Each structure stands twice: as structure tokens, then as C-alpha cells.
């Protein structure tokens, strides 16, 4: 059972990361679209569907499966897990920021520049590098 849940966990994590990497990238282009234009309205639909259809459910499944793995695997006292959880909490915080940005764009009230979204686009990628090294290499 453990291996099956781990497979589910990795599938959910891949979907979550794909959405987390793509949403800020969409926003880089959304910034350039004039408010009220057909392009801007299309970006709104793309952002909403990606967030609600993939990003949110994938995060929930990744967390549920991950918590199961912690208990079943007896990892609760492992150093690598504590490091991973710290990074995953930050990743979940970035997820919350993305939710906020999608809502802002939906209301035509974007508060950030194209450059901001370009920089924020790198954050989930950097966190993912740390998370994968911690869980695969388990350096401590
Ligand atoms: C959402 C909260 C998360 C929790 C609670 C969690 C917890 C865990 C646990 C306990 C394992 C089992 C480790 C093992 O059996 O060796 C695992 C496996 C794994 N996790 Fe997570 N994880 C989470 C999110 C993530 C994220 C965001 C990523 C990648 C960006 C990730 C990537 C992986 C990978 C690749 C494995 C398979 C490791 C292996 O088979 O050796 N996890 N996770």
C-alpha cells in the first residue's frame, strides 16, 4: 500500500508543480494585455481553470498522501523530513500568493509588475530542487 500511495504522491506533486510553474508565467503575459481586452479575459479563464482544476486539487492530494507516508513510513523524527516540511510550507505559502494574484487579475486589480511575476516564477522551481534533494538523497 505504501508504494501505491507514494506513486499517487509523486503524480500529485508533478501536477502541483506544473501548475505552480505555469501560473506565474501566464501572469507575465497577462500583465501585457490591456484590461478588458479579449486577450486579458482569455488569460483570466486559463488562470482560473488551471488553479481550480489542477493546482488546488493536486496540492490537497500531495499533502494527504504525504502525511500518510510520514505516518506509515515512521519518518516523523527524520531530519530530512523536517527540512522538506519547511520548504513545502513555504511552497504552500507561494500557492496562497498565487491564489491571491488570480483573484486580483479576475477583478482587473493586478498589483504587480511583469518583472515581479518573472522573479516569483523561479521560487517554486528553487524550492522543488531543495525538496527533491532532501527526499531522495536524505542527507541528514
Ligand atoms: C505536501 C507536503 C508533502 C509531504 C508531507 C511529503 C512527504 C513525503 C514522504 C513522507 C515521502 C516518503 C519518503 C520515502 O518513502 O522515502 C515522500 C516522497 C516523495 N516526495 Fe513528498 N511530501 C510533500 C510534498 C512534496 C513535494 C512538493 C515534492 C516535490 C516537489 C515531493 C517529492 C517527493 C518525491 C519525489 C518522493 C519519492 C521519494 C522516493 O521514492 O524515494 N513531495 N514525500
TrEMBL record:
EC numbers for this chain: 1.3.99.-
Cofactor dependency: heme b
Cofactor-binding details, from the entry: Binds 1 heme b (iron(II)-protoporphyrin IX) group per subunit.
Membrane topology reported for the UniProt record: Multi-pass membrane protein
Protein name from the UniProt record: Protoporphyrinogen IX oxidase
Organism: Azorhizobium oxalatiphilum
GO cellular component terms, A-Z: plasma membrane
Subunit record text: Homodimer.
Upper taxonomic lineage: Bacteria, Pseudomonadati, Pseudomonadota, Alphaproteobacteria, Hyphomicrobiales
Residues annotated for heme binding in this entry: 9, 84
Pfam families registered for this protein in UniProt: UPF0093
Similarity remark: Belongs to the HemJ family.
Catalytic reaction annotation: protoporphyrinogen IX + 3 A = protoporphyrin IX + 3 AH2
TM regions (residue ranges): 6-23, 50-71, 83-102, 123-139
Amino acid at each position: 500500500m505504501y508504494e501505491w500511495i507514494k506513486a499517487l504522491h509523486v503524480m500529485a506533486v508533478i501536477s502541483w508543480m506544473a501548475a505552480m510553474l505555469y501560473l506565474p508565467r501566464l501572469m507575465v503575459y497577462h500583465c501585457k494585455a490591456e484590461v478588458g481586452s479579449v486577450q486579458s479575459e482569455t488569460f483570466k479563464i486559463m488562470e482560473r481553470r488551471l488553479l481550480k482544476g489542477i493546482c488546488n486539487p493536486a496540492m490537497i492530494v500531495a499533502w494527504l498522501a504525504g502525511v500518510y507516508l510520514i505516518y506509515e513510513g515512521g519518518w516523523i523524527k527524520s531530519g530530512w523530513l523536517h527540512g522538506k516540511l519547511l520548504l513545502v510550507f513555504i511552497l504552500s505559502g507561494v500557492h496562497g500568493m498565487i491564489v491571491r494574484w488570480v483573484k486580483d487579475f479576475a477583478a482587473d486589480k493586478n498589483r504587480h509588475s511583469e518583472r515581479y511575476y518573472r522573479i516569483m516564477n523561479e521560487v517554486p522551481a528553487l524550492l522543488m530542487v531543495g525538496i527533491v534533494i532532501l527526499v531522495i538523497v536524505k542527507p541528514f
